[in-house]
């Protein structure tokens, strides 16, 4: 598929998160709040930019990085048991490489938590300690750890439950991967540099079976990271507790972010990070892949009223796997799907997404923003209904950007692997949208340096909140123009979506491109190498 610059240029703001969302997916549905260990919060998928040249070549440029975050809003001091992954859960990253909204490749992660029963002599008795560490920690399977976390990785080709499963291995053929303990504090694990050195020992080189010859290597890391998602969270959920004039003034884009020191960045997250050669993920000549993450739990859970000594004796899980978390594009479930259907969405598959179509074609978020910011449900809401602009992007992707050759309507994060990555310093926080604005429009697109950003996949630096706010308030309709430049008038199999939106349907007009949440994603600290998300906050730090 050739990347068509003209169409991208007309898209200008490409603000289509494919979801009309506002943040990420933390605590987004009623059931998942009861099971935080399987709560998927963010999914990133991008061409790797570690060590690349200014032209997007060299280094790790031929690889795709996928990062699936779980366990939201971790207080760094949240001990003494901290945030181990659930050994009774199945964590998965799914990829569709032919546009049929069904997984063709699935990477499965299973965790094992081994209790070492470290004891100290107390008088004549040997007594088990109450903590997860007995001394300083700095190496793999450190003897001072009372709990060792490990995991296995399998790649399944075809249906996630019925396809062919093979073990992903280390270079030496072993199938057990070590996970670092969370950043308990500086006395246990040293300063940030020392902890990062310890964490990097848990970046494992891997061999992925079934890949083309010479393209079967990569890396995997699972461990705690600093929360990388920037959003003015408290303000947003308190009925958007900020004046409209503040949110529409570009000068305030980081007024509440404090240079990457906003409250969200004081929390940690647990990341499953995987880097695989792009040719191992695509099929045929189409370079576009769609990705999403899930977490599943066993259907039955038997609680033990009299748990025995040892580890994990309080419950016994069994039965079939039941999907309880799902995430592709950011915050679809949190701010697009209605409250009655949030658990249903988390349990659903992309191939069945037309059942949620009304939430996209008739979104409530613009009306809610109108009520809380302007006192009227119609004050900010575009008048074109159904919203073909959002539906086209939500279900199929944008032609020439991230739409596969065959596009079955579905909500997944789409990445065109034919587009070269961009060095971190040159990345535009608004992705393609920001580049079009930066160079001054279509005529100057040849000067664009960054066409590898959201919604063409998602990188940590991409400010998906601001992009999504513009989209939901009609930014795409403004760019679409009276001549339907973007082709926002059709979704396969949905005859009612035939009328393209126009600028006249957008109450804010061009001002819709100015809205933001007051926190700038570009000020958040990140690494320029795998696993990209920053060193976690230490538990012993003062806040």
Task: Write a brief structural summary.
The protein is of the alpha+beta class. The protein folds into 2 domains: about 1-25 and about 330-525, no CATH class; about 30-225 and about 265-330, no CATH class. The protein has 13 helices and 16 strands.
Mean pLDDT across the residues is 86
Structural class: alpha+beta
Secondary-structure element order, as H and E?
A: HEEEEEEEEEEHHEEHHEEEHHHHHEHHH
Q: Indicate the radius of gyration in whole angstroms.
A: 23 Å
Structure description:
By secondary structure, the protein is an alpha+beta fold. It folds into 2 domains: 1-25 and 331-524, no CATH class; 29-227 and 267-329, no CATH class. Helix content is 16%, strand content 23%. The protein has 13 helices and 16 strands. The chain has helices spanning 5-11, 186-189, 192-200, 233-237, 244-247, 332-335, 342-346, 357-361, 365-374, 388-395, 431-439, 464-472, 475-480, and strands spanning 40-47, 63-74, 89-96, 105-115, 119-122, 125-128, 147-157, 164-167, 169-170, 177-179, 204-207, 217-226, 268-277, 288-303, 315-327, 413-416. Strands 3, 4, 7, 8, 10, 14, 15 and 16 form an 8-stranded antiparallel β-sheet that branches. A 6-stranded antiparallel β-sheet has the order 1-2-13-12-11-9, with no helix packed on it. A hairpin with a 2-residue loop joins strand 5 (119-122) and strand 6 (125-128). The chain is globular. The N and C termini lie far apart (50 Å). The model is unreliable at 1-23 (pLDDT under 50).
